[in-house]
Amino acid sequence: MPPIIRFDQVSVTAHEKTLLANISFRLFAGEKAVLCGKSGSGKSSVLRTLLGLHPLKSGMVYFQENPLTPESVQSIRSCTAYIGQEPILGAENVREALLLPFQFKIHRGHQPTEAQLIEVLQRLQLPENILDQDSNRISGGEKQRIALARGMLLGKKLYLLDEVTSALDADSKQVVFDVFSDPQLTVLSVAHDPEWLERCDIIFELEAGRLTEVRRHGNT
């Protein structure tokens, strides 16, 4: 089975600064991987490069073994849910934020029912009445779970997560752990949380834009 994501000697620069230097790794469907390292080591740059937000200086990124190009980048974006530390919900209230993607042509006709909205909220331990709350009045942890709920409603199978547990309490964190234990979901994440690292199959250590170590869960 070919990898879902493959970086082949990828280098990225911005404003004459090296963000990534000769990065190579593979991630297969269903695997959970985490990028670790000090601030500025290139962790978030890997995610942004995969989304086509950084042009490549050299090397190639492959998604499902197809080269990532300006023309093909939409294919990975359509399959991917990106959730950052402070997600932008893009709507006045939570209900509108959850339904926003279904206004676009690719998802039109697949709008979830009220029962489906409530079901996904309950799964993420969010109250039903949050649907009518203003997006700018909910907490960072709630925004992260709303962004995750949106990905779940869209049926996303690939998740790019940037410190997704940073604003969560212990109970909410466990809920997120349970969601991503699904073997059908592939995860590439940035995290420092030891509990999150413990649950990942692969740990990629980065330093100054270079991949310095790859560890599989249970191995040193």
UniProtKB/TrEMBL annotation:
ABC transporter domain mapped to chain residues: 5-220
GO molecular function terms noted in the UniProt entry: ATP binding; ATP hydrolysis activity
Signal peptide (from-to): none
Annotated protein name in UniProt: ATP-binding cassette domain-containing protein
The keyword ATP-binding appears for this protein: yes
UniProt cross-references to PROSITE patterns, sorted A to Z: ABC_TRANSPORTER_1 (PS00211), ABC_TRANSPORTER_2 (PS50893)
A Pfam family: ABC_tran
SUPFAM superfamilies for this protein: P-loop containing nucleoside triphosphate hydrolases
Keyword flag ATP-binding: yes
Keyword terms of this UniProt record: ATP-binding, Nucleotide-binding
